Amino acid sequence: MLEEAYMNKPAAIVVMSSDTDLCPALHKVKSQGVKIIYVGFADSINRAVSAVASQTLTVSIPKVQQYREEEVAAMQEALPLVE
User: Fold this and answer.
1) C-alpha distance from residue 67 to each of 5, 48, 80 (Å)
2) In whole angstroms, what is the distance from residue 56 CA to residue 52 CA?
3) Residue 59's beta-bridge partner residues?
């Protein structure tokens, strides 16, 4: 993440971790002008990571489960039955 921020200067980096050990690195990334998008579960957002992030997006567990069920159903539909 740091190498990407310093070498390639992306417009944004998406972080899907609530590990506060990332905060020092996130501060450095942000200092390079890179937008940090933090994605976490709505019921367990990490305040420290969210405070460093440029934007925080939340997902709910029921929404993830719904998406998973839809994807499994689509895969089962697409695959031929093996007997």
Assistant:
1) 31, 28, 22
2) 10
3) 41
Both tokens assigned to 71: 């994807």
Residue that has been written with the tokens 């159903």 in this structure: 73
The alpha carbon torsion through 25, 26, 27, 32 (nearest 10 deg) reads: 100
pLDDT tens sequence across 18-45: 999 999 999 999 999 999 999 999 999 9
What does pTM read for this prediction?
0.77
Percentage of the chain beyond pLDDT 90 is 72
List the helix and strand counts (H, then E) for the chain. Answer: 4, 3
